[in-house]
Each structure stands twice: as structure tokens, then as C-alpha cells.
Specification:
By secondary structure, this protein is an alpha+beta fold. The protein contains five helices and five strands. The relative contact order is 0.13. It comes from Hymenobacter chitinivorans DSM 11115.
């Protein structure tokens, strides 16, 4: 019985290895081990995402949403999926909050960013007289983000090769103040 189980697992492992290696080969394109169009098409049907999730640029700008508390302190409004607040990934709250945040960011225009560049972060937090970008609240659109005032911080991640030379690299941050009401 053990030999049959071992043979079954070995066959599954070999089949998985062949499938993954053929998928990698089919996604590479023109090279020394050229595949036919039919093979590439078959694997794009079997694995439609391919290896695209490895191709996101690490130099893309990153946005972080902070909520301004009544005592003028900041709290992170969107948490990582693997944080303990999200039950280490079992809760979908962070995914919902990030989806709502992306909806908010879709309503923000580039000119909105430009109007806040003359203010510092402390000016944006402490002053109630600085005009904000208004996002209309809808109970169907927002579930995790509540009504309130938020700060969005936009920055680029420092490449790890440059991190050891901070005097030669500047990482400008941009801020945006918005209100969901």
C-alpha cells in the first residue's frame, strides 16, 4: 500500500514539475528552446495569469492612507493583509479597505496633488482651514472607510542597492488631504 501511495505522489510531483517547466518555457517567448504556438496557447489557457505577477515594477509609486484622529494624530487606515488585525490573512477587511482606497484614488486628479505641495505634513494635519479634496460618502461604496479627514502619502520605494547611500539619494514625499463626507 505504501508503494502505491509513494508512486502516486511521485507521479503527481513529476506531472507538476513538467507543467510548471512547460509553462515557464512557454511564457519566455523566443529563445533556444522554442515552443510552438499551440503549446503557448495551451498553457495560456491552463495558466491565464502566467508569470505576470512577477513583473510589477518595484519602482512604482506607493500610496499610504492615514486617518486624522480628533486629537490631530495619524493612524494608518489601511493595514497589510497579513497583520494580526486581519487574522493573518483570514479576514477580508484589509482587502475591502484597499479596494475602497483605490476607488477614492481613482477620483483624485493630478492637479489635486499639486495644490498641497506648498504645505508640510504638520500643516495639513494641524490646520482645519486648508481646503480638502471632497469625496462623497456612499454606504454602498464604503464599508471599511468611514467619514472623516484623511492624509494620503505618496512616495517611491528606495531601491535596496541605493539604501546604503542615503546621502546620494532623495526620496520626495507628496501629500494629499481629503475628506470623505
Amino acid at each position: 500500500m505504501e508503494i502505491k501511495r509513494f508512486s502516486f505522489y511521485l507521479a503527481i510531483l513529476a506531472l507538476g514539475f513538467v507543467l510548471v517547466s512547460k509553462a515557464v518555457q512557454a511564457s519566455v517567448g523566443v529563445n533556444a528552446t522554442e515552443t510552438t504556438f499551440q503549446e503557448r496557447y495551451t498553457f495560456s489557457v491552463l495558466l491565464p495569469e502566467g508569470w505576470g505577477f512577477f513583473t510589477k515594477s518595484p519602482r512604482d509609486e506607493k500610496n499610504v492612507l492615514y486617518r486624522i484622529r480628533p486629537d490631530k494624530s495619524l493612524e494608518v487606515a489601511t493595514h497589510k493583509n497579513a497583520d494580526p488585525e486581519n487574522l493573518f490573512g483570514f479576514s477580508r477587511r484589509s482587502r475591502r479597505a484597499n479596494m475602497e482606497f483605490s476607488r477614492v484614488m481613482a477620483q483624485v486628479k493630478e492637479k489635486d496633488w499639486d495644490q498641497y505641495q506648498r504645505y508640510s505634513l504638520q500643516d495639513l494635519i494641524g490646520s482645519d482651514t486648508i481646503a480638502t479634496v471632497h469625496i462623497p460618502y456612499s454606504s454602498t461604496q464604503f464599508n471599511q472607510l468611514q467619514k472623516g479627514t484623511y492624509i494620503v502619502k505618496r512616495y517611491t520605494i528606495t531601491p535596496w542597492a541605493w539604501a546604503q547611500y542615503p546621502e546620494h539619494y532623495t526620496n520626495p514625499e507628496r501629500y494629499l488631504k481629503l475628506t470623505i463626507n
